[in-house]
Sequence to fold (212 residues):
Amino acid sequence: MSIFKEISQNLQQGRAKNVKELVQKALDEGVDPKEILENGLLYGMNIIGEKFKNNEVYVPEVLIAARAMNTGVEVLKPYLVASGVKAKGKVIIGTVRGDLHDIGKNLVKMMMEGKGLEVIDLGVDVPSEKFISAAMEHNAQIIACSALLTTTMGEMENVVKTAEKSGIRDKVKIMVGGAPVTDSFCKKIGADCYSPDAASAAECALNICLAG
Ligand code: B1M
Fold:
């Protein structure tokens, strides 16, 4: 069995200790960390997502798979964030109001930190007012919003509107992302940057900070 398949299967079974050991084994064998993330961890998480959709697994199984995913990501972290370019800048990040998904948001945070950016993480279920007050308090250049549910992505528009009402819209760029979010949605709500994955989100944040 390939190492990717082993990682994926152990993740699906929620075996965090095995996932940690297998990810380390793959790294020791010289496998590319991005491939371990995509073909092992994310691949396994997607299968869990499909099974969740089809009611073949339930919240507890998804949670233990998510814990195994996080354990694997922790091992990969030092390898994924290695980057030559360092920028100065502050980012406020969070998952929007009503939404508790944080694995993708944590990956985005990790990649941004790898670019040398300071990332202030507000966690999950973050109301739009909290994004704005944190941006004002920390004088941040970027607000980064994550949403995984079609029912919560609309909250991103509230973040844009609240930034306008508070008079800080011209001082802060608003980035959006998460599985249901698209570039056309980003444009429609008047946000500044949509990224499909954590690596391109970090790239976008870096470019904003270098330009500003
Ligand atoms: Co939830 N869930 N979930 N869930 N869950 C999804 C999202 C779902 C697609 C599953 C399904 O039906 N197939 C579905 C949403 C359907 C929809 O709205 N279209 C769903 C549902 C319905 C729900 C509940 C409503 C279920 C229920 O209770 N009936 C409930 C909602 C709770 C709430 O939030 N209020 C719920 C609960 C949960 C758990 C708590 C059990 C758990 C979350 C644990 C946690 O996050 N700590 C969970 C999980 C794990 C999932 C799936 C299986 C995996 C999500 C994940 O972490 N993926 C998911 C199915 C799936 O996605 N295949 C599902 C891996 C992660 C790395 O990917 O977050 O997409 P992702 O991040 C990517 C990109 O999107 C991007 O970068 C990352 C990778 O590079 N990205 C950004 C993310 N944020 C970004 C921000 C950016 C830029 C890029 O800029 C700022």
